[in-house]
Amino acid sequence: MANQYQLVVILNAELGEEGINNLSESIKSKIEASATSIDAIDTIGKKTLAYSIANQTEGFYVKYTFTSESDLPKEIERVLKITEGVLRFIVVRVGE
Fold it and tell me: pTM to 2 decimals?
């Protein structure tokens, strides 16, 4: 059974516009490869962090809403943990 999920990613703002676009496209392609559908991609933009993460005080936020089987979020988390330029991320299942 497919569930709807939201993924919020904080990217390193020092990557620049081109680096952020490339990284967000690679995340999108990873989701598209296994997800049933991508419902929405919201680029929230650059925000000041509440505390520094890896000596960064600003991050670029992107939110993905997608529908997939229950094994995809674990795979996305595994990939994002080792992806250079990702400061933080969270994947949550949207309640019914």
Answer: 0.90
